[in-house]
Structure formats: structure tokens, C-alpha cells
Amino acid sequence: MIQTMKDTEAELIPVYVMGKRYLVPAALTIMKAIEYAGHQFIRGCGCRGGVCGACSTVYRKKGDYKIRSGLACQTVVEPDMHLAQIPFYPALRTPYDYAATEPTGSAIAQLYPELFRCVACNACTKICPMDVQVMDYIAFLKRGDLRAATAASFDCIQCGLCASRCLAEIPQYHIAQAARRLYGGKLAPPAAHLATMVSHVAAGRFGATLGELGGMTADQLRELYVARQMEPAMSDETWVPDAKVGLA
Amino acid sequence: MKICYYPGCTLKATAQNLEDAGLAALAVLGIAVEELPRWNCCGAVFSLATDDVLHQIAPTRILIRAQEAGAGQLVTLCAQCYNTLARANLLARTDAEKRETLNRFMTEEPDYRGEVEVVHYLQLLRDQLGWNGLAARVRRPLAGLKVAPYYGCTLLRPAEVNIDAGRAGGPPAILRDFLAALGATPVDFPLATECCSAYQVIGSPAASLARAQTVVAAAVAAGADALVLSCPLCDHNLGRQQLSFPATNGGPPRLPVLYFSQLLALALGIDAAGCGLDRNVPGTRALLAERNLVPVAV
Question: Which residue of A27, B92, B151, B262 could cross-link B21, Cys pair, CB 3.0 to 4.6 Å?
Fold first, then answer.
């Protein structure tokens, strides 16, 4: 544990947290290094597993004007890094009536008229820790192409760094989410296998299994969970579990 | 030489008839263009503030995309996009200080120094085919159709990006020559190079409506059956705004408004659907049907 690690046991490197110099073990992630320096994360640390996007962070390296970005829980510190954690950056999501909203560029433009303030400076794309082509999906939305915007924004983790950098004050990730929802629900061809499975669910195929689980004690559930068959790491797409309850 | 095509946002949204007809016509004419694989909004209007370098980033980035795609020329159908891109290109060629500022800002892109040439579609026709060459390709001459060319501002001003610069000093004639090549009768009228009211339609809608009535009335008075233009904003102001003209008896006259690419497609024998006529102001298709210029009357 970090708290018990003796400084002599690990190679220490200097980093700057909010401008103040600290010596931290070289193997730490940015998040652990900031905690090692004495800060405590209550919000803005998320899953700590590289998935959720809550800990997106910005940093600079010595002698380099570039602002860099990454997930604080995944990025390993380097000597003389300048760090600070930005827990959240204000960005407004416009509420809308999904059923009544047309999946068109003009509907998006009405929800987010600031879309048209983009001057293509590309700061959003440059900061994105997921390498999403943010400026490009904004360009797609300006011309009303929800399909292309959906594809281009698919890897977005909603961290909001794009909105923090936008000089046009656009909440890009909220706009892309609205576009994906409208495209996914109203324009994308429906998946036939999904409809089949939904009909199976509706017909009660899983009712007995769910009832069985519902009748178990917490201990029984825990036992079942621990004993479950896991998909082996790095298995390919042909892998199937031994038990195929309800899938046949 | 490879020619890339820059559509602009409006041609993918409300001005699809400008694009559909224009691209169908190029296919018939055998002029190969390739839509830029990546592009953003042109910026819509060239910034008039001399210290506003930021607004040159969008058009400059498009020019860089064209250069990356190996294009010698970048062609546009939209007059507004043409103007914005051509002026940004002029800036890249002539203003070393701003050029370096732009290049330094866009460190993620290769440097750009104005290598690509920006042309409007009408210039492409004139320079690749020539008007006689175009006339030879016409399959359905627009005989008897009296058309007023409307240039507006962005094809002509400032002089450095005038698409008809060869005629500097005299009135522009590129649209007149184009219409004559299609077999139509060009009708010059005094307001052909005046402003349509542009974005005043948002801030001063009454003034914009009055301007539309004045321009349309002048074209009608000159004997035109239709007005032809190349800008979606002009089309909105002079075309769509006709729907808001007072309907009182003896009210301001109305006039079919078409994109030049639609008349081109029509003259090349492309069907009415390919010409996108369903998107024009009411009466356009009826007029063309009356002159036997569309295969199916409505």
C-alpha cells in the first residue's frame, strides 16, 4: 500500500502538483501520485480502472508548451510533470422530448445553437484522451450528418475535456450524445437479433431463472457469482460459455 | 491535375438541389472531382476584421485538407464558400505574417502557403470545357427560357477573387455566357450584382423582405422568366422569402429561382429528380414544364 511504502524502497521522482514540488514513487499513476502527495479524491476519481472517464486529466511536461491529456488512473508519472486534477468542468445538457424530436441536423441546431460558433480551432480534438476526432464530429453535425457524427463520437467517454478547451463554449460531448441517441433510436436500421431476444424476454423465457435467483439468499448469490465461468482473458470472438441458459 | 470538391454544410442540408444537380452534371460532362475526405465548415463568411486571424483557421484547414489530398484545385458550388476559401487562400499567399501565425497555431497540420487554387464551378466549366465546348454537350437546349443572372456579392467582390476577373472594369458576363451556352436567353437587369441582404434577414427581416421584392421586381421588369444564382443564402432571401411576399391583388411580382447547376443539369438531359426541382420555390417546375423543359409536367 502507498501509505506504508517507505520512500527508500522506491525510486522517487519530482512532480509538481498544482505548482508545488513533491517526490513520488516513479511507478505511480497520476492519480496515485496526487494522492501520495496528500490529496484526497472523493469525486472525480471514478472507477480507477481506465474505463469510466471520470478521472480525465491534463498535464504538461518540462520544457514543452503542449497541454497533454490522459486518464489519471492509467497514465504513469514522469519526472517534472506538472499535474492537477480537474474534477468536472461545467457544461449544460439541453433537455428535450426524445419522442417529439426529429433526428435531423436542424433539431440538433435548435437544441445547441452554439454549435455554429465553432471556428475549427481543433483544441477539442487535441485534448481528447480517447483520440476522438471531436472537431470532425462537430463539423458533421453542422451539416446535419447524424450518422457520421455517431460513428466519429462513438469512443467518447463523456469526460468533458473538449468542453473545457472550447473557445466557442460548445458542450461537444452532450451534443454528440444527443446525436447518437437520435441516430441510434430513429435512424439506424434496427438489429433483427435484438428484436428476437426482446420477444423471448417478453414471452417469459428467463422468468424461471430470474425467479430462482430472486429466491436465493445473499450468501447463495455470492457463491454463485464467485463460481461463475469467466471469459478467459484475450479469448477471441468464437468463445462461448459451457452453460447457455436461455440463449439457445 | 486532381480536382477536389468542397461542398459546404448548406449543400448537405437545405441546398441539396445545388449539389445534386451540379455533381450529376459533372458526371455527364466527364469532369472528375473528388469530395474532400475530411472537411469542416468554411466559416460561412470571410472575417472582415483585420486582426481576426482566428476566423481564418476554418477555411485554411480546408485548404490544407485539399493539399493533403493531392489536389491542385479545389472547386466549390456555393458562392459563399468560394468567397471564404478564395480569400483565405489569398491571405495565405500574400500575408506572410498572418500565414506564419496560422501555421504556428495549427501545429498538428502541415504548413500551408497557398499552394492550392480555389475555383468556382462556373470557372471550372469555362476553363475546362469553354462555352462552345459546353454548348456542344447540351442535349435539351433551354430555348425560349429568359433567365436573369444574379451574381450577388460573393462571386465578384473583392476584385482579387472576382470569378470574372478577365472582364475587370465592365459588368460580369460569366453567367450570361453560361446561360447562352445552354441555349437560354440571358436577361441582364440592373440589380444583378447588388446584395440580396445576406444575413440582414436575421437582424432586419423587414428590410430583407423589401430588398427581395425590389430585386425580384427588377428582374421581372427586365422580362425574365426566372432568376439564376449560385448561393444558398441568396436563394433563401430572393427565393424562399417570396413565400412571405404580400399576397394582395397587384402585390409584388414573384419569379422562379433556380441554382445555375439545376439549369445546367436540365440542359444536359438529366431528369427532373436529378435536377432537384422539388426543392425550388413554387411555380419553378410549372414554368419549366410549360416550356417543355422537364419531361413530366406537373
Answer: B262
